[in-house]
Predict the 3D structure of the following.
Amino acid sequence: MNFSTLRFPIKTKLTIATMIPLAVAIFCCFLAGIFILNAKVAGQAQEKVRNDLSVAREAYQSELSRVCDVVRFSAAIGTTTQAIENVNRKALAEVLAPVRSNEQLDIMAVVDASGKVIYRTNNPDVYGDLKTDRFVARALKGEVVTGSSVLSAGHLAVEGAALLQKARSGSGADATDAGLFLMAAVPVRDPGGAVVGAIYGGVLLNNNHALMEHVRGVVYEGTRSKSSKIGSASVFLKGTRVASSSQPPAGARLADEVFRRVILEDGHWVGRAQVGSQWYLAAYEPIRSLQGVPIGALYVGMPESQYSSAQGGTALLLGSVVLICTLIGVAVSGVLGGRLAQPVKELSILARRLAAGERGVRSNIDSRDEIGDLAGSFNEMSAALAEREDRIIELNRDLEKKVEQRTAELEEKNRLLVQTREELLRVEKLAAIGELAAGVAHEINNPMAIIRGNTELLQLALPEEDPNREEVDTIFTQVKRVERIVSSLLKFARRERRELGTVQLNALLHEIVAQIRHQEPLDGIKVQEQYDPEAEMVSGDADQLRQVFTNLVINAVQAMSGGGVLSIESSRGTEGAGFQVRISDTGSGIKPENMHQIFNPFFTTKATGTGLGLSVSYGIVKEHGGSIEVRSVPGAGTCFCVNLPS
Ligand code: ADP
C-alpha cells in the first residue's frame, strides 16, 4: 500500500496531532505512576515486614517471659526450698514434674547452692553433675536470668534422651543435633533470703512448629488470603532452620548473604528470600545468647505474590484510569478536531462551489483566528471574482455589440461597393453601347430617310387597288419600325439634352394612364390610381420622366396578358425626402434568374421587344439623381418603385 497517496481528513490529522503528545504524556505518566507506586508499595511492604519482625520479636519475648514466670513460680513454692535443703528428690518430683508438664517446658531441673544438679524433671535418674553455665551461675548469685541458649547434643542427652530426638532437625549438611532453647534460671531462697539453690527451665525451639505457628498467628492475625494463611515465621540455629510455621518446616539454610549479615555481622536483613519454591519478602534479626553473641535468627516473611498482586492491582487500577483518561482524551480530541476541522471543511466545499462556477458564494465563519482570516480572505476573493466576471461579461457584451456594429457597417459598405461596382460596370457598358448605337443610328438614319421618302412616293404613285400596294405598305410599316428602333437607340445614347423644369408628377402619371389605352389594349385590366397631393412637384425633364413611367406602365400591362390590376401610386419619399412612384401589376412576375439582367440593354423576353425600355429608364432616373427598385414574385406580380429627389 502506498501511504503517500492515502488521503486523511483534517479532522483525523488534528485528532492524531493532539492525541500523540497526549498519548506520550499519558504513557510517561503511566510509567512514572507505576514506578512510584511500585516503589511505594515495595517500601510499604518492606516497612510492614520490618514491623512484622518486631511483632514476632514481641511474641518470642512473650514466650520467654512465660518460661521465666513458670520457673519463678516453681522457685517460689515453699516446698521447693525445703526439698532443696533436704535434697528430697521425691518432694521435688511431686512439685515440679506437674508444673513442667502442664506448662509444656522441655527441661526443668534443680541445682543446689554449689551448682550441683539435684533433680531433673525430664531425666530424674541423672543428677549430681555440676552445672556451670552462665544461667545457673548467675541465678545462684541471686539473679533471675532469661534468654536464648544453645545446648549441645551431649547436654541434651543429659537433660533427657527424648530431647535429643526432638531437637534433631534438617538433613545432610544442614542437620543439627544441638537444641535452641528459651531458657530461664531463677534462684531459690530460704525464708531468710539466702540462695539455697536454683531452678532452670526451658522450651526447646527445635521442631516447635506450634510455637512458630503461634508467632505467625500473632504477627499476621487478621490477615488472611482467600486460599490459605499468609506469612510464615521461623527460627534458625546458626544457619539452619530448626522450626517454622510452614510445612515442611525445617532443614533449609540461611542464604549466605543473610547468614553473613545476621549471624556474623549481628545485623538485620530485609529483602527477597526463597523459602521452598516460593519467594517471600523476608526480615531476619539475630537471636543472641546471654553474652550478646548471635546464635540464631528469627525470621518472618510474607509471600511476594501478595505484594505482587498488590502491585498488579495498583498497576491494573492505574492502567484502567489511564485507559479511561485516554478514551476521554480521544473523544475530546475527536470533538475538538471535528470542531477545528469543520470550518476548513466548509471552506473547502465553498471553494469547490466557486470553482464550479457559482458566484456570490460567502462564508459565515466568524472565528477570531487564522481560519477566520482565511474565511475573510475567501469572501474578499469570491466578491472580487464575481465583480471581475461581471466586468468581463460587460466588456464582452460591449465587444460583441461593437463587432456586430462593425460587421453591419462592413456589410453595408461591401454592399455599396458591390452596387457601385455593378453600376460602374453598367454605366461603362451603357456608355460603350450608347456610343456604338449612336454611331449605327447616325449611319442608318440617312438611308432610312431616303427609303422612307421613296416608299411614300411609291404609295402616292400606286393606287389603292394596285396589287403591289400591299408590299409597299409593308415596306413603309417596317421602315417606321426601324425608325422607331433608331430613335430608341438615339434616346438610349442620350444624345438629347435634358431640359430641367418643374414637373406636375401626379398629373403626368394620370395623363400617361389616360393615353396608354391608345398604345396597349387594357382588356381585363383594372387600373387603380392613388396620388399623394404632397408628391406633386418634381424638378426634372418632363419628357424623359414621361418616357420612364410610360415604359413601366406598358411593361406592367404587357405582363398581364390575361388581365389583372394595374396600380399607380405616388407618395413622399420613404425618409420624408423626395418622392416615390410605384407602378405595380398582378402579372407574370420576373424569374429570379432574369432579375439581375432586366436593366441590361437589349435584354428582353418578348418576341417583339427591343430590350431597351428599362435600360433607358434606368439611365434617365440615374441622371435625375434617383433610383429604381424592383420587387417581383413569379406568377404573382411585380412592383417598380422610382425614387426621385425633391
Ligand atoms: P422590352 O419591354 O422591350 O422587352 P424592357 O427593357 O422594357 O424591354 O424590358 C426588359 C424585360 O424586362 C422584358 O422583356 C420583360 O421580360 C421584363 N419586364 C419588364 N417589366 C416587366 C413587368 N412589369 N412584368 C414582367 N416582366 C417585365
Q: What stands out?
A: The CA atoms of residues 447 and 453 lie 10 Å apart. The radius of gyration is 78 Å.
